[in-house]
Design brief:
single chain, alpha+beta, 4-stranded antiparallel β-sheet, 13% strand
Length: 244
């Protein structure tokens, strides 16, 4: 990147020592990458108009004054106005083929659940609690507040909204296959016996919004890899020059 060529060896070392080099490289790398994304002229003009209107510039004659007050030239303005669209287009063009695999890999962290939980150390007590709830003799919240031996005691048994990468894997698997509103027989998780009931579930779906989110995650990881490579080369080169 040409913008980084202006940095001398001492400046590179100073930026690195103050943990400013990586953020600078990332900003310049992303800007350089997205500037290469082509946007049709008509769309470009419309996006700039929308961007200016967002800041109250509805009169085109006042654009130059607003740009001057905000220390922007035409290129800066265009980059700001087109940034989001360029980013989305770049992600879609370059990482679309990886989105489905990323979604499946991340799904357990994206599905959201709310569930009621009662944990006790005594198996017989857990069975008794389960029967009381399943036969509608008692409210699960009342029993959780009275008997549960974990932090959920303070929330009347309610846990969540939460993703299933947080609970113990045995409990997470039980929640995943449970029907909403149906209390489950006690399961043992380490030394505890747990009665649970799923109150709400919102499984993640690969809709347009999720697609964009996954593509952006992949983009961010790719950028981080590239930025670290550039940073390592700059630091090594500057260190060698200073030493020699």
């Amino acid at each position: 990147m040409k913008s980084l060529d202006t940095l001398n060896d001492g400046t590179i070392q100073l930026l690195n020592n103050n943990k400013l080099l990586l953020p600078l490289i990332r900003r310049e790398f992303v800007k350089d990458t997205l500037q290469k994304v082509n946007i049709e002229k008509e769309e470009e003009e419309n996006l700039i108009k929308i961007f200016l209107e967002k800041y109250g510039v509805t009169d085109i004659e006042k654009k130059d004054e607003w740009m001057k007050n905000n220390d922007l030239d035409s290129e800066n303005l265009k980059n700001l106005a087109l940034a989001d669209v360029r980013l989305k287009k770049y992600c879609n063009d370059n990482f679309k083929h990886k989105v489905n695999a990323r979604f499946l890999e991340r799904k357990s962290k994206l599905d959201i659940y709310v569930y009621s939980l009662i944990r006790v150390n005594d198996r017989n007590k857990a069975e008794e609690i389960y029967l009381q709830i399943s036969e509608k003799e008692a409210d699960i919240g009342d029993l959780a507040a009275k008997y549960s031996e974990g932090p959920e005691k303070n929330t009347r048994g309610i846990v969540g909204p939460i993703s299933l990468d947080k609970p113990h894997p045995i409990l997470a698997e039980k929640i995943k296959v449970s029907e909403v509103g149906v209390v489950q027989p006690p399961i043992q998780v380490e030394k505890s016996h747990i009665v649970c009931r799923v109150e709400y579930s919102n499984p993640a779906q690969l809709d347009d919004l999720m697609h964009d989110k996954m593509a952006l995650e992949i983009f961010d990881e790719w950028v981080l890899t590239k930025v670290r490579e550039i940073s390592e080369k700059l630091i090594n080169k500057s260190s060698n020059n200073i030493t020699n």
